[in-house]
């Protein structure tokens, strides 16, 4: 089974950028489609982005982050990334890495106006 640990969250001003990382352990990392989700206080967990193992690593994004966020993965390092640009206060949330039924512990992103 894969274990996931996120990092890279923090406090940033609106318009700024952050890169989240997700370190995955386990031999089966490459077999998982992977994604990022987020959850703001009082709201349900929301899909942010996903990247597939097939189709040349095809990606898809939630409507609210299209054109601003980019998901990528490094198979050699067992890492998943989320580059977040042009951040908005409404992007404030705990961001979670996902692989199948596995979740990381989350990393807090706070965007100030």
Verbal overview:
With 113 residues, the chain is an all-beta fold. The protein has no helices and eleven strands. The strands form two sheets. Strands 2, 4, 5, 6, 9, 10 and 11 form a seven-stranded mixed beta sheet that branches. It has a four-stranded antiparallel beta sheet with strand order 1-3-8-7, with no helix packed on it. A hairpin with a 2-residue loop joins strand 9 (93-99) and strand 10 (102-103). The radius of gyration is 13 Å and the shape is globular.
Report, as a whole number of angstroms, the end-to-end distance: 40 Å
Mean pLDDT: 94
The whole-angstrom Rg is 13 Å
What percent strand?
over 45%
Global shape: globular
Quaternary organisation of the protein chains? single chain
Largest sheet, described in full?
Answer: 7 strands, mixed
Helix-strand topology string:
EEEEEEEEEEE
Alpha-beta content class: mainly beta
Number of helices: 0
- State the total count of DSSP E strands: 11
> What low-confidence regions span 5 or more consecutive residues with pLDDT below 50?
none
Helix content: under 10%
């Amino acid at each position: 089974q894969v274990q996931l640990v996120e990092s890279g969250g923090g406090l940033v001003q609106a318009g700024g950028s952050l890169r989240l990382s997700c370190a995955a352990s386990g031999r089966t990392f490459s077999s998982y489609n992977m994604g990022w989700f987020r959850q703001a206080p009082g709201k349900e967990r929301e899909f942010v982005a996903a990247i597939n193992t097939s189709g040349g690593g095809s990606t898809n994004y939630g409507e609210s982050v299209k054109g601003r966020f980019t998901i990528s993965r490094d198979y050699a390092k067992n890492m998943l990334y989320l580059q977040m640009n042009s951040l908005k206060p409404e992007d404030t949330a705990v961001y979670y890495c996902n692989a199948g039924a596995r979740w990381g512990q989350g990393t807090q992103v706070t965007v100030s106006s």
